[in-house]
Specification:
alpha/beta; 3 helices; globular; 6-stranded mixed β-sheet; 5-stranded mixed β-sheet
């Protein structure tokens, strides 16, 4: 005697679309705006004049010259992970930080290593090393997968 659990393809697609990050492999050019309700993982550059905006968190594997805006719907718990080696702009919710690599008092460490941008307990944008992610946002990416938990929310 065999039993099986089968998920209808429409429900599986809905689950995937609501829980998985958007993955993009391209450069975002001047004047282009990429927008999503989901987390974004971008493998490419954000050129000057380009905007990547999400209601969730944003991870960039590439150069950031333009604007990265996480938590666009007001969620201050979102984060940005990217290497900051060029002038640009980061936003989380309504908090804005201009990245000026010539500014000696900048919070940015000019590094090819990714840094985390987040809103701290004082509601100020802060930059941290990637190794601190588990302390800063212990629940980050813990929700990936989990079909049964997602189904309970329906």
């Amino acid at each position: 005697h065999f039993t099986q659990k089968v998920v209808e393809i429409e429900l599986a697609d809905q689950w995937h679309n609501e829980t998985s990050p958007v993955m993009l492999v391209k450069n975002i050019r001047n004047g282009q705006i990429i927008q999503s309700e989901r987390d974004i993982i971008l493998f490419g550059d954000v050129r000057p004049g380009a905007v990547v905006r999400s209601s969730g968190s944003i991870i960039v594997v590439g150069h950031v010259h333009g604007t990265i805006h996480a938590g666009a719907d007001g969620d201050e718990s979102t984060i940005i992970i990217a290497p900051f080696m060029h002038n640009g702009q980061v936003r989380i919710s309504e908090h804005v930080e201009f990245i000026d690599m010539e500014d000696d008092e900048s919070k940015i460490k000019n590094s090819t290593l990714p840094q985390i941008v987040y809103v701290n307990d004082l509601h100020v944008l802060e930059f941290a090393e990637i190794e601190q992610l588990a302390q800063i946002r212990p629940d980050f990416a813990k929700d990936l997968g989990g079909f049964e938990e997602w189904q309970k929310q329906l």
